[in-house]
Amino acid sequence: MADTSGLTAQSRRDLLSMMILIRTYEEAILREYHADKSPGFDIGAGLVPGEMHLSAGQEPVAAGIGAHLREGDALTATHRPHHVAIAHGVDLRRMTAEIFGREDGLGRGRGGHMHLFDPDRHFSCSGIIAEGLPPALGQAFALRRAGTDGVAVAVTGEGAANQGAFHESLNLAALWKLPVVFVVEDNDWGISVPRSASTSVPSNAARAAAYGIPGVRVEDNAVEAVHAAVGAAVARARAGEGPSLIEVHTLRLWGHFEGDAQGYRPDLEGAPGRDPIPTYVAALVADGVLTEADVALIRTGAAERVEDAIAFAKASPVPSPDDALKYVFTEGIPA
Ligand SMILES: Cc1ncc(C[n+]2csc(CCOP(=O)(O)OP(=O)(O)O)c2C)c(N)n1
User: Phi and psi dihedrals of 180, rounded to 5?
Assistant: First the structure.
């Protein structure tokens, strides 16, 4: 694959490293999630009870966004948040402790995997779909008011793009020319509902025209294409030219949630062959950007970071039931 994106070799290595870190993380969470749920799957059992939505296959979206964000920029995400949280630099240890429901978690273990909140990185997410978009507008408004050229990125799924909050957010962001980049992850499925049964237009990017903002669809889940599209949108936002919408046709390699048997998915046939990570490894090796040995080192480094975060989470105390009402709403939050 020729490098047509103007990316340096180092930038390309960084994109791959981020994708590998994210996949390594999701594989480890998958392992931990199922560890105490076998032989029968019990959603309430184990070290990590509750639903778990993992992002394997969608790494190009996260890596392509994260490469453009700086200290102070904001990112809001969905019920499937780990990939973008990692790419935005959310602390891996405290994020993992939150997923495990521990005291050292980002939200002291009260939020869990769908409610990671990191004020230091201006990162938040929510189990309510399309709920991440209005807060991104608030972040963007605050960044502009503070006189910075910061941007807010709002990531959402294609299913959520049919929610009112999506359209209201596009309208207001356009009207106020806010520095927001909307990124729709089109993984073809909203739980078990195919996109064709939920969405009236072939591309959510086309919906941008209704609000007078640029809309781009990236077709092939290729990290460099995402990187280029997000780069243009972020530059536009930083320059005060307002919001943009990008839809990426990505791939949900695993179930909607872990434990989902996916009997409804004909598109899974051949899906491993569309895995974006081996594809990108092959491209970078072919271009002489790195060797297989370099890739092995990247994988080892990622595994070390991930296992350190898992160990940190497991060592952190479980909150006492007596403290269940602490840190809820305003109680316990320093003034
Ligand atoms: C307002 C609201 N309605 C319904 C749900 C239940 N729900 C959880 S995930 C989901 C599908 C989301 O699909 P999509 O936006 O495409 O994201 P993906 O899961 O594919 O990442 C639904 C309907 C919810 N969480 N919030």
Answer: -120, 140
Residue to substitute in 26, 126, 129 for testing ligand 1 pocket (most ligand atoms within 8 angstroms of CB): 129
Q: Is the CB of 129 under 6 A from ligand 1?
A: yes
Looking at residue 332, its pLDDT comes to: 63
Pocket test for ligand 1, best of 55, 158, 168, 191 (most atoms within 8 A of CB): 191
Q: What percent of the chain is helix, strand and coil (3-state, nearest 5)?
A: 45, 10, 45
**Rounded to two decimals, what is the model's pTM?**
0.96
Between the CA of 189 and the centroid of ligand 1 the distance, in Å, is: 10
- For CA atoms 165, 166, 172, 177, the dihedral sign is positive
**What's the 274 CA to ligand 1 centre distance in angstroms?**
24
Neighbouring C-beta atoms of residue 331, cutoff 10 Å: 8
Using DSSP, state whether 273 is helix, strand or coil. helix
Low-confidence spans in the chain with pLDDT less than 50: 1-4
Residue 19 token pair: 């994708």
Q: Within 10 Å of residue 115's Cβ, how many Cβ atoms?
A: 17
What tens digit of pLDDT does each residue of 27-49 get?
Answer: 999 999 999 998 788 999 999 98
Q: Report how far ligand 1's centroid is from the alpha carbon of 75 (Å).
A: 18
Architecture of domain 9-313: 3-Layer(aba) Sandwich (3.40)
